[in-house]
Amino acid sequence: MKQRIVIGALLVECNHFGGIPTDLNSFKRTQYITGQDVLEIADGTLGGYYDVLSPRAGDIEVIPTIAATACPGGPVTTRAYSAIKQQILTGISEAISEGPVAGVLLALHGAAAVDGIPDLEGDLLESVRDLIGADVALVATLDLHAYMTEQMVSNSDVLVAWDTYPHRDAFETGQRGATALLDIVDGNLIPCMAMGITPVLVGAINGTTEGEGPFADTMRLAKRIEKRDDVYMTSAFLVHPYLDAPNMGGGGLVITNDDPDLACELATEITEYYWSRRHDLEPELIGVESAIERSLAHDGCVVLVETSDCCGGGAAGDSVQLLPHLMALTADIHSVIPVVDAHVAAECHKHSVGDEIMIEIGFRHDPDWGDPVPVCGTIIQLNDGVFTYRGGIWDRCEGHMGSSAVIKVGGVHVCVATHPTYEWCGEQYDAFEIDVSQMKIIVAKNPMNYGMAFSDYSDLMMVLDTRGPTPATCRHLPFQRITRPAFPWQDDFDEHNKVLTNC
Ligand SMILES: [Zn+2]
User: Fold this and answer.
1) End-to-end CA distance of the chain
2) How far is the CA of 216 from the centre of ligand 1 (A)?
């Protein structure tokens, strides 16, 4: 008789300080696939699952439920979560009613929240565990920006995260998760998982896993430990810091084959190392005025990084903090800035290319962070906002900005979208037909991928000290529910490493 494995995906990153609520339409714009069609997904994490599971088709049956992923945003609405959770739980229940289930394999993010539930994944994993019982294997793949909680760790057998940031290894992480599940099902692994957490809340500016850097070094340590014969698997986490929830922090996860003491010891080693690099994780920032001055003095193109309005971190993408500064420059200084503003996009689409438009733009979806800016410019582009990702976790998937337009105000190209989308490698500016090589100033609204997107055009990139729901430093965010002491508000304190375990 075949071993039966149920799979599903609910992957989204949420933000408690801003952004647009993540509703069912947010998922439907990105990925919302049910039933047997889930088995057709060839890329990303689920593609990695099938790559491992398909060769075992003779003795493994894969039972799909749902694949739901969305651009980061505000917390998932109760209605959307209930609908997706129900699809997963009903799929598992129906599978159980037809015969024994050997395992459940879920592609999650780890930093999703629901209205009233700060830890979506913990809630989901506990519900799945309640349904399948203690003896059925439960494995979940995560983003390395997961908010790791007791509820997640205690209810799963194996948790495994991407090893890369920028996130290039969704497929490989899927392979690792599926391999772990098969090892448990085949009786080769009794997973003992320990997760060290240290209360370090930092933005992702210095969080790359490539080249030199504090998190790259942490990841390398974790991967060195993974090579040991007595270690099964490791991950390192830099928590998505824009959730206001208890016991937030990053650190190391170690899975051994039935050796709890070793798992705890090595998870502590990774986590202590991560703690030791906390000061290196805080970024160097520059004020907007100084950045504009330096830009004008610089010979060549400059990237201004407004990470505080990062759609990929859950912000609405509607900040216009930089716009007045760009509009104040002479018209021969060409610049480009993205702004999500559904109203302005719709108004532009009532016009034609070449028309003049006078309108207030920005801070429409998340008005807590600033005021709209009046603009008077020419519509130079109207389109449907569809593009194709060239990498990352949505590699080759379509992205949907909705009705989109470019308004030219002096030398400023204001790229207006209806919906926020994740920025990978400049796909949005390409969709707007912006030739970034002709720009003096490129505004990028993400903390990491801008390097990948624009390093061919610019040798000066400055991270701005601006306000918003995804700032470069967490120092000024109005946290209420995090557990303190925590870095960067407090520094030297003894109790900075807590270990969660499932064994
Ligand atoms: Zn991430």
Assistant:
1) 30
2) 14
Q: In angstroms, rounded to a whole number, what is the distance separating the alpha carbons of residues 368 and 195?
A: 36
Residue 414 CA to ligand 1 center (angstroms) comes to 27
Q: Are 14 and 121 a contacting pair, CB within 8 Å?
A: no
Residue with tokens 């039933």: 35
- Interval between CA 70 and ligand 1 midpoint (Å): 13
Region of 462 please: left (phi>0), alpha (psi -120 to 50) or beta. beta
Select 3-281's CATH number: 3.40.50.2300, 1.25.10.10, 3.40.50.2000, 1.20.1740.10: 3.40.50.2300
pLDDT in tens, 257-292: 999 999 999 999 999 999 999 999 999 999 999 999
Question: With contact defined as beta carbons under 8 Å apart, do 198 and 238 qualify?
Answer: no
Cα(403) to ligand 1 centroid in Å equals 27
Report pLDDT digits (tens) over 424-443. 999 999 999 999 999 999 99
Distance in angstroms (rounded) separating the CA atoms of residues 69 and 33: 9
Distance CA 234, CA 256 (A): 9
- Ligand 1 centroid vs 423 CA: distance in angstroms? 12
Measured CA to CA in angstroms, residue 447 lies from 206, 244, 285, 413 at distances of: 9, 20, 12, 21
- Write down the domain spans for the chain: 3-281, 288-463
Determine the distance separating the centroid of ligand 1 and the alpha carbon of 161, expressed in angstroms.
10
Please give the structure tokens belonging to residue 451.
């390097």
Q: How far is the CA of 278 from the centre of ligand 1 (A)?
A: 19
Rama region for 433: left / alpha / beta (φ>0; ψ in -120 to 50; rest): left
pTM: 0.97
